[in-house]
Amino acid sequence: MKIKIPSNNGETFSAYLKTPTSTPAPGLIIIQEIFGVNEVMRNIADEYAQAGYVAIVPDLFWRQEADIELTDKSENDWQKAFELYQHFDENKGIDDLISTMKTLKELPECTGKIGSVGFCLGGKLAYLMATRSQAKCNVSYYGVGIEKNLDEAANIQNPLILHLAEKDEYVSPEIQSQLKIELSNYPLVTIHSYPNINHGFARIEGKDYNLEATNLAQSRTIEFFQKYLD
């Protein structure tokens, strides 16, 4: 179902919400890729709801174009996605995620314990949720641009996982090495690297989808959420 979330400027934006059969339950914010709140993101939310979480996927592109849905199957969609990404304001995106967290906490179906999991653009934002919000735990899948905000790592107060794709065409080996070295100083951060795996490996039916890597990352992520949210 769709719900409306009040932003901090008085406007509202939409979010896809899926609740588990048994409530109250912990909350999970699913943070979108550059393709918007599309079928892939909704399916991920559905899976987390089946696993026992109140899953919500906020529309973070609403300030540019509300409720847009793109795929990785079309060149036109790729161009549109990159255009949205280039004009996206990360700081306002984090504001919207914190507004989402507030709304989620107030739902009777939610216990009030909330984490986040993000992919691509959302992977960067999951890192920023770890540095700027009170989310209990956060998971980043192949986040792009984290190195630009490593100066915020000292603000991390709750556990964070980074899933890195070794052959990520958007995160160079040099940057991945930098992340591993600089974040090794922070015991709340765990980095998992997936050899010979490309960006987007967990996007089901995507061009670089990898079942083995997805299953391994998912098992680590679920174990992590069970430890810190349940």
What does this structure look like?
The chain has helices at residues 39-50, 75-86, 90-106, 121-132, 173-183, 211-228; strands at 2-6, 12-18, 25-31, 54-58, 110-119, 137-141, 160-165, 189-194. With 230 residues, the chain is an alpha/beta fold. An eight-stranded mixed β-sheet has the order 1-2-4-3-5-6-7-8, with helices on both faces. 39% of the residues are buried. The protein contains six helices and eight strands, in the order E-E-E-H-E-H-H-E-H-E-E-H-E-H. The protein has a single domain (2-229), classed as Alpha/Beta hydrolase fold, catalytic domain (Rossmann fold, 3-Layer(aba) Sandwich), CATH 3.40.50. The two termini are 24 Å apart.
- Approximate strand percentage: 15-25%
Low-confidence parts, pLDDT < 50 over ≥5 residues? none
Structural classification: alpha/beta
Radius of gyration: 16 Å
Helical residue percent band? 25-40%
Number of helices: 6
Count of separate structural domains: 1
The span between the termini is: 24 Å
Strand and helix order: EEEHEHHEHEEHEH
User: What does the largest sheet look like?
Assistant: 8 strands, mixed
CATH evolutionary superfamily: Alpha/Beta hydrolase fold, catalytic domain
Mean pLDDT: 97
> Which fold name is given in CATH as the topology?
Rossmann fold
Quickly give the CATH architecture. Answer: 3-Layer(aba) Sandwich
Shape: globular
Briefly, what CATH class?
Answer: Alpha Beta
Strand count = 8
